[in-house]
Design goal:
Oligomer: single chain
Number of helices: 6
Radius of gyration: 19 Å
Strand content: 15-25%
Helix content: 40-55%
Order of helices and strands: EEHHHEEEEHHH
Shape: elongated
Number of strands: 6
Largest sheet: 4 strands, antiparallel
Structural class: alpha+beta
């Protein structure tokens, strides 16, 4: 269940949402996919390690997202102008001409899982790899929940939510994520 909280920077268009680690918990099959690929068929002892890693992760993650809604000043094939003179997502090739607002979100599982992976990497490297795969699967599930929350927030404001555009997906260069951080 998502819990909407006021963002640290108070604004009418910015909010923070916390999610339950249980709601973000991926299936074993999702973790196995990230651990070894679509055709990977792990032995039973590996599946037990995945289960243990899932339980560990569920106790250390703190899934949350911050959302901001920005009015679009100008939009065309070259990108979107929000504030200032620099377009964001320049050259992405998306059809921006109908965009009236951009809802930007940043999601995290918190620092706990990364710290645990780092600690395990020194003493139990395979356990760290399994836990890392668990983290990727948790992030995947969190992205779905963030998408649903984006839709909900847009609808509550009388807006329509369009296609998700994200650095690292759909041939959008991962380096463009810094543009989101700069907002």
């Amino acid at each position: 269940m998502a819990q909407t909280l006021p963002a640290k920077r108070s604004s009418l268009n910015q909010f923070r949402v916390s999610f339950s680690s249980r709601d973000c918990r991926p299936r074993v099959a999702d973790v196995v996919h990230y651990l070894g690929g679509a055709d990977y068929r792990p032995r039973p002892h590996i599946l037990k390690r995945v289960e243990r890693a899932l339980t560990l992760a569920e106790n250390v993650v703190a899934p949350a997202a911050v959302f901001s809604i920005f009015p679009v000043r100008q939009a065309n094939h070259t990108g979107v102008m929000l504030n200032g003179d620099r377009p964001i997502f320049a050259g992405v090739g998306a059809d921006w001409h109908q965009a009236a607002y951009i809802l930007a979100s940043l999601a995290t599982l918190g620092p706990g899982l990364e710290a645990k992976c780092r600690a395990l990497s020194r003493s139990a490297p395979f356990a760290a790899i399994v836990l890392d795969a668990v983290g990727v699967a948790f992030l995947d599930k969190l992205a779905v929940l963030v998408g649903r929350e984006s839709q909900r927030q847009a609808t509550s404001l009388g807006l329509h939510s369009g296609v998700r555009i994200s650095p690292g997906l759909c041939n959008i260069d991962l380096s463009l994520q810094t543009e989101l951080f700069d907002l």
